[in-house]
Write a structure and sequence with these properties.
Length: about 375
């Protein structure tokens, strides 16, 4: 088996795949079309499954040191009443680690630092991917042609490689929700590590970071493509009477720091994550709504599973068959669960279903909630060494 790979896409999933392949002795080139990697306005909650994947990639310790554990918080109403409290200590006892909050840019940097200089080609748009004989795949990259034994398509929800491999697939669709988010410019006085607040068709949440700053996000049920002239002013108007610290989080944010993206998902599951010597990974394979906080964690699982399969199977094709067999059922089940969580959470708008949901959440014992979380968090990675 040859051991050279081209990874298309330099996001978290693509970099994690590069780190994993490097750990098993492969030569890797990551092709990223963006000239500058800049995702300063976002944060990530990493659950136990994502952290275990990072441990196998050799960067788990560094990620934990740069993160803040989520021991306190939960879900609230706009008036401030608690629907559910998060018992981070109980979750840590059950799975061995609390959920950790980290700026996305920090996680990205730690993955980059685990790769040799020259691995990442910025400002390089990948062209067509095609088979170049029985044992190689060819990727166009500007005026350069890259030949490899494996191509990993980690080019996101709008993956061009996925569209080429599955031209009859309907592709991503709008989830019905749009998200605005930012990281505060300065520290904010927070009494909890993590919170979600559900209104009618609206959600506001925050993740606290070690330096006292926080990432916040506002999810709104709006038509696709809706944009605001002054996003921060619009959010202040919508959330001015919601409980603390929501107004303070908005006040601690620069107007030009707010990012706004529609949430798209692969609602129609793909029939396979592998075709020949091409593997789909992360959002390119299973873009999901963020309602379970599992998007990045599933991409990290993909990366470790792919690298492990390549160490145990005799050919690239056999390894990708195993990768598909192991990853597709789990990741697609998580995507379905995330979609359902959104429908029962942020996307509910009618007062009666909202009231019934709130009552059910208040009556659910914390141990039952932890069992539900464990369905997604309790994943054991294959070993790479």
């Amino acid at each position: 088996m040859g051991k050279s790979a081209v990874i298309v896409g330099g996001g978290i999933g693509g970099l994690a795949a590069a780190v994993g392949l490097r750990r098993i002795g492969w030569e890797v080139t990551v092709v990223e079309r963006a000239p500058v990697l800049d995702d300063v306005g976002a944060g990530i909650s990493l659950a136990a499954n994502g952290l275990r994947a990072l441990d196998e990639l050799g960067v788990g310790k560094a990620v934990r040191q740069a993160s803040r554990a989520q021991y306190s918080g939960g879900t609230r109403t706009p008036e401030g009443g608690w629907l559910a409290r998060m018992d981070g200590a109980a979750l840590e006892k059950a799975v061995g680690t609390p959920i950790m909050g980290i700026p996305r840019a920090t996680l990205h940097r730690l993955l980059r630092e685990a790769l040799p200089a020259g691995t990442l080609l910025l400002g390089s748009a990948a062209g067509p991917v095609r088979q170049a004989g029985p044992g190689a795949v060819r990727v166009g990259c500007g005026e350069t042609i890259l030949d490899a034994d494996l191509v990993v398509a980690a080019d996101g929800v709008g993956s061009k490689i996925r569209d080429h491999l599955f031209p009859a697939h309907p592709g991503p669709v709008y989830s019905g929700s749009t998200v605005l988010r930012a990281i505060t410019e300065q520290a904010v006085a927070l009494r909890t590590d993590f919170e979600l607040t559900w209104g009618h068709g609206t959600e506001f949440g925050h993740i606290a970071f070690p330096d006292g700053r926080a990432e916040w996000h506002a999810v709104l049920s709006l038509p696709a493509g809706t944009r605001f002239t002054d996003p921060l002013a619009e959010l202040r108007r919508r959330f001015h009477d919601w409980h603390a610290p929501i107004p303070a989080l908005l006040d601690a944010t620069r107007p030009d720091a707010v990012l706004h993206h529609d949430i798209n998902e692969l609602r129609t599951p793909l029939p396979s994550y592998a075709v020949g010597r091409i593997a789909l990974l992360g959002d390119a394979a299973h873009a999901m709504t963020p309602n379970l906080g599992q998007g990045a964690c599933q991409a990290l699982e993909d990366a470790v599973t792919l690298a492990a399969a390549l160490t145990t199977e005799p050919t690239v094709e056999a390894a990708l068959t195993r990768y598909d067999t192991e990853r597709r059922p789990r990741s697609q089940a998580v995507a379905r669960a995330a979609r359902q969580a959104g429908r029962m959470g942020q996307q509910l708008t009618h007062p009666l279903p909202v009231a019934l949901r709130n009552t059910a959440m208040r009556m659910t014992p914390s141990r039952t909630a932890i069992r539900m979380i464990l369905r997604h968090h309790a994943w054991t990675p294959p070993h790479l060494n």
